[in-house]
Amino acid sequence: MVELFIELAKHQVVTQKTISAVLIASEENGDIAGVGVETLMETGKIDFLKNGPVLWVDCSDSQPCIGTGMNSSRDAT
User: Fold this and answer.
1) Cα(61)–Cα(68) distance, integer angstroms
2) From which domain of life does this come (predicted)?
3) Residue 36 — pLDDT band, cuts 50, 70, 90?
4) What's residue 12's pLDDT?
5) Residue 64, preceding bond cis, omega within 30 degrees?
6) What DSSP state is assigned to residue 2?
7) pLDDT value at position 66?
8) 3-class DSSP string for 53-64
9) pLDDT tens digits along 42-77
10) Helices in 11-48 by DSSP H: which ranges?
11) Quick check: helix, strand or coil at residue 68?
């Protein structure tokens, strides 16, 4: 993902859509409040993603696994 952003910047690629990355660290940490996707959603910091499309890449910190998902739906209202 980092390489993608480096190449886009290096070549000054003009895209038809906004390309963003949200990096979340220590989401499962119970000692530090206010981290994770839930807080980003509650504070409206990722509202710009609501109209998608969204490609979600997630990796676990506790075992070898990676999950991905995509939401291409659009709000019709």
Assistant:
1) 15
2) Eukaryota
3) confident
4) 96
5) no
6) H
7) 53
8) CEEEEEECCCCC
9) 999 989 888 878 877 766 655 555 555 555 555 544
10) 37-42
11) strand
